[in-house]
Amino acid sequence: MVKITPARTRHFLAEVISWAFFPPLVGTVFFIFLIFWYSADFGEGLKWVTLVAPFLIFLPLLFFAVTYKLGWVDDIDLTNREDRPLYLVVFIFSLIFALAVLFFLQAPLKFIVYVLSGLIMTLVTTIITFFWKISFHTAVTTSVVTAITILGGMRFSPLFLLIVLIGWSRLALKKHTFYQVLGGFLVALAITELIFYLFEFKLFY
């Protein structure tokens, strides 16, 4: 029988938190929520989800499943920094295609800006990844929480506490150092705020 200890409990909780806030999942779930939130009706929302889902969801997941099966990556968490750039490049192209679809079909500006900010954030963090293992868990969640707060107002600012929780989980699992977690937060916050600000959406009024 496995003995339950404080260390095992912390590790289990950290694993649950890390999986619950798996970066592609967080970014995609919020985008789907954003689409239905700002669409005129359910039918319109379903249309936008159907158009962008192949690029934002199915293509990256399919590529990851194939590369994992082939042994190109060591684990699902992409623990090794060297495993990350290839997957990130595929995700960048997926974001570009999704952005092009939204732009040419004249989607609401909020959808376009959200995907654009995610694209720029992913580009910057991918470049950083070539030299340093920045935390994508904190980066993606920070980007999403910042976007929620910009679009929905400061009443959503308590969601930033989630980033502290996620940062703790990454440290508890020894996946990142404190500065890698902090770096993901700062880079994502700065880029997301900047891109939304350029389109006249402001975090602080």
Which helices and strands occur, and which strands form pairs?
Layout: H1 6-20, H2 23-38, H3 42-69, H4 84-104, H5 109-129, H6 136-152, H7 161-172, H8 178-198
Oligomer category = single chain
Distance between the termini: 56 Å
The low-pLDDT segments are none
Radius of gyration: 17 Å
- For the record, the count of structural domains works out to 1
Summarize the biggest pleated sheet: none
What does this protein look like?
The chain is built from eight helices and no strands. It has 205 residues and is an all-alpha fold. The protein has one domain (23-198). The longest helix has 28 residues, at 42-69.
Put the structure in a nutshell.
This protein is mostly helical. The protein has one domain (23-198). 74% of the residues lie in helices and 0% in strands.
